[in-house]
Design a protein that fits this description.
- This protein has one domain: P-loop containing nucleotide triphosphate hydrolases (Rossmann fold).
- It is 60% helix and 14% strand.
- It is built from 10 helices and 7 strands.
- The relative contact order is 0.22.
Length: 207
Amino acid sequence: MKSYIIGLTGQSGSGKTTVCDTFKSLGFHIINADLVSKYITENSKSCIDELKTAFGEEYIENGVLNRRKLGSLVFADREKLDKLMEITFPYIIDEINRQIENIGNNKLIVVDAPTLFESGLNKSCDEIVSVISDKALRLDRIMKRDKISKEEAEKRFSSQFSEKFFKENSDFIIENNGSEEELIKKAVLTAQSIKEIYNGKKSKEKE
């Protein structure tokens, strides 16, 4: 049986990292799209050259993309953000697919991707889990975690899908408006449900 792919996404500051860590502790293989993106923008010369042409040499430092500097530009300009995604997504998707192949068949694999829907990766997923949270809580978390201003955090939020979108396009929704302990419990229950679905499909395939 081929591997079962779970797309994990959600709003910035929603607590997705905690959910991902919980899935990992329960035996799921994790592919972190942010780390893949970082790897691509540091090591893929063709991608870096495309970014240099599109945005200018000032965003390339020592041969790699200054992600934070370019982020400040694109999060304030939808057209530029779309251009960034147009350039980087094909490279990122190719690398994620390569990592999936390396993990092998008959595995539960979580692709942790903030831009799961924007990239089209959702089309390759067997299940989609989205983490959502109240805006005020998310703002506070993002500002503390990334040491950015409220204005910068708001810019990030403005480029993302609404809570309604995630609810309408996900198989599982995890709401994180309480304690971390409560979030972990919800993540465990979701992981268990996915394992049951996966094991059921495995059993049918053997019949």
